[in-house]
Amino acid sequence: MLTIAPLKLWSVHYYNDTSRATVAASLDRQKAGGGLGEYYSEGETRAPVWMCAGDGEAAAALCGLSAADRAGGEADLDVVARWLDEGVAPGGACGRAFSGRSNRGFDLTFCAPKSVSLLRALDTGGVASKAVAEAHNTALGEALEYLHTHAGYTRVHNPVSGRKDLVRLPGLVAAAYQHETSRAGDPHLHTHVLVPNKQARTDGVLVAIDSDALWHEAKAAGIIYQTVLRQELNASLGVEWDRVDPHSGMAEIAGVDRAVLTAASQRSTQLSAWASKNLVVDSVGVSAAQLARAQKATRPRKPEHRPWAELRAEWAGRFGGELVIDEAAQQRAREQRLAAAAGAVMEWVNAAVAGIDKAAFTRADLIEALGAAMPVTIADTDRGPRWVAETLADAVGMRITAERAPHEREGHDRFTAAPIIAEEQALYELIAVRDQRAALPAETVETVVEAAGLSADQGAAIGAIATSPWLIQALSAPAGAGKTTSLRALREAAHRGGKRRVLVAAPTGKAADVALAEGAGDVGGTIAGALKALREQRLQLDPETLLVIDEAGMAGTAALRELLAAASSAGTKTVLVGDGRQLSPVKARGGMFTGLCADLPWAQHLSEVWRMHDAGERAASLVIRDGDSGVLDDAVGWYRDHDRLHLGDPVAMAQDAFDAWMSDHNREGGGDSLLIADRWEIADALNERIHRHLVADDAETVTGARRHRIGAGDVVISRRNDPTIEVSRRGSKRGELVAVTDAPVRNGQRWNVIAVDAEGDRIAARRIGDNALAVFDGEYLHTHVHHGYAVTVHAAQGATAARCHAVLSTTGRRRAAYVAMTRGRESNTVYLYDRVAGEGDHEHGPQPQPGVHQARRGDDQDAAGALRTLLDRDDDAHTVAATAAATDRDRLPDQVAGLLDARTRVLAQVRSAHELGVEVDWLAQIGGISPRAVCHKTGADTLGRLAEEGLDQDQRGIAAGIVGTIYTVQSLHVDAEAATDKPALLAAVTACTQAEDALTIVIPGTEAARRDTADYRREGNEGVCSAAEVLAEFDTLQPDVMSRKSRFFGAFIIVDDADHLDPVQLRGLARHASARGSKLLLVTTDTDPPRPGPSKYLTDAAAAHLPWAQHLGATVERDTAIGRAQRRHTSRGEDDPHIAEMLDRATELVNNCWERYGHWGRHRERSRERSRERSRDDDYGIGL
């Protein structure tokens, strides 16, 4: 494993002091033993040595090191300190001076597996110990070579582009300090490779390293280290290995007792000492009692300062004379290794690619996967693991982005692989399935939505989903947008509309439990459970089932594809619900839910947040979600101004969060407070500290997972689904226990411990939420139950509390921060911690006073700056298709281009069908008539004034056609060349409505339209409003009732630049106009260049298909979905019965409109004739 920590001023002194202390201890031991020393072991393991990567000869010479130094010579402690602290290389060269906050260098800490550390520590013959050291150092060298190749860059200003281009350094030079022990005194072989942040360029100038590249490649380098270490020890000692952890790339020696590994893995970090109350945080001074307790538990002598022989003697006493390795386990591992070596290379390569949790990955991601999956030995090559991984990465990875620019890091490039392409293409083929049986009756849905009290935002989304025939639906909902409330209404609508059941599936059992408890479904469970049941034919889907996939953003693409395929083939409508801006799937490829929300033309998006009480916090949360850099500063400023941001070291921030949580806990009623941490080490520390505070020291306890001591009164969390554990609750008769069969033990459930049986190694617990009872014991207790006071960010997604306290690393990313900062209703407070070298298990930081931690805290400005930097780190999951779409098609591999072609074809097909359906529904909505839609008084006296307005005959005819007809929705399209005449025409229209004494409302769709209102608004019964304001007033009226008492009865609503309104708003205005007896005039204007709005397809359909549509200027044929479908049908026929059915309906609607138009035209002509006969002297020649 490799970790990186920045080195600040004076950080190196601890490593140098350790080296000096060890030498002193060794000399003392020599004197005590009559001069017999330990020169070999001490010189090898404690004094730093020089290491070079890349062109080592050139790099060493440029820095002033000799050939002996370059070969691994001992490094002078003062020279190393001067280079790191002052930026002065061994040869005396120095670059630009460090600033006060500059990173002086980087501590790259390479850690051997625990079993390897034990093998070295307990070796009595010296052979194994030496072999381990040599393998460790060889692996270090390979990892550093990888880092130089892919992260050994500095930045140089490019005067042409104005950017800072990456320039490769000739080499990297570092000082390596090998240590043998952890802070707790356990065997822990690790090397601190201290890389100064002043490295020599080819011209000898010392420059800074591009640290972001170093961080990006760190994990891959760590896995290279582990892979080489395994191969080297297998070659030298014949050691065989257990299964490799695909995440860390680490494996233990096969046959080493797990109990021994656990015993040798004590934790003794500053955080663990604080959690055990053995470390006091000193902010304003500590009491004598606190100091006494802490110092009593503090080790008097640091283990890393003790001589090697002394440590080995202690370890031999603790773990036995030598490491016991089970030979049978070694033999099984040997057989597995030989079988893997004999197999085809592409077998394990394909398996490695299949395990990558990103569809569009970096080359470093691929190296990590290949390194973790690589067999210890590979036939037909004598090259090392680094070469194998690099070569295979080049062969397997398909580039899906353009070649990176000189200023872009290697991490900018994105790749994919053939199986991932096939997976995405198969899913896209599913989205074109529709079934009219999936569409619920509109009347039923409207009734349910109204009764549920949904907001306009929620009601429109649920209405569209429920009435749609498309089998795959998507609903994107920000944190706190009322998703569950909306799903409850959908469930009710489904039942009333004839669906037999609503099935909920979610990535986690906790998410499924929450959805079911809040009424989003009838039955449900995890996605994995649903897939297993489908494969075993225990679950049957059908058209009478509505499937809801909750937290769909956390569902992997492979699982989504399988579940959607099963649902669609059964005619089951599936509703994907979630937020693509929250957490991505765990150990699975994500991004598909986000892609579907963007691609599906019928996807719904909630935009209003309701959870937080403060409107300012609701707005700030949406800004953080979207990551809009233009307004992020304002959002961060809101949190700063409301005292929601804190910054400091990990222990100080844990203390502050603990204090705040305890304050909430001590409130009346116990408080409703959630404590979140982004890393397990923080969560473990907080959990143990709270446990020690709430449970007496002498209370009976048992050991749970993560070594947590669990006692009565603790809150614990179950971390694995297990339907075999018996769950019960008290019945109504004499308190007997009744089995609970519909709510099993699931991952993420929290429980109150009500009793502990230490002798029986079990606990009794009551589930929080439904008070169900369960007993946890044995393996499940030890492996899957631990304290549940502080939870990780992943466990917190979907949770809600009154107040939330989140402890987050400054090196985190926006997704996790967004989730953590949106759980609380009343407040969300963030405690940001930054790590420096010296604060981890193998990073041995100095302690000025034993038992006391000197807190480091920043001010609110520091905290705001740290949060702002964190929020700039975007780790959104992206699909192959979404990533490749931005790349020139000619530069893409054929398979990737094929995926894009398939996606384009399917989306064109569904968009065409969807737009056709929307236009047909729109035509049905706007083709009606109303007696109140005509201005009856606009006869000779009113229309006569139109001539005085300077309108020509065509314009007067248009005005008359608008105000003098009974059509509810009227369309006016203005040609670009006639745009200057639009204000006069609208002024004539408003003159007529004023004469009628009709309420006239103007809704400008753009700022230009708002400015134009000054040219035609008249004093009187008129107003300029937004669409949202008018719709909000409409929603306060009795549903769909035309009342003469309503001020909207007979109102005239002008929507200028109507194509720029949101389609939902435009459809809402049309629906209300018809229901309230109002007239709606939709005005659109051509521009040069064209600037189409989101509702252009609706306004074009009105202009093209309404016979009474008016046109000012040249008439241009509108391109509509109905027109396109008719042309396709005429040219080649239509083999899709759904399309043919919609075309028939469209034809019927258009014919009905023409019949109404013809009837009204004949009626109007008869009216004109009667008017001429009554008052020929008053005829202005324009008629009515």
Task: Report what the structure shows.
The protein is of the alpha/beta class. It has 44 helices and 40 strands. The strands form 10 sheets. A 7-stranded antiparallel β-sheet has the order 25-24-28-27-26-23-29. A 6-stranded parallel β-sheet has the order 15-14-16-17-13-18, sandwiched between helices. A 6-stranded mixed β-sheet has the order 30-20-31-32-19-34. Helix 6 packs antiparallel against helix 7, helix 34 packs parallel to helix 44 (1137-1174) and helix 43 crosses helix 44. The model is unreliable at 36-45, 293-300, 839-844 and 1174-1184 (pLDDT under 50).
Descriptive tags:
6-stranded parallel beta sheet, 1184 residues, 7-stranded antiparallel beta sheet, 40 strands, 44% helix, alpha/beta, 44 helices, disordered C terminus
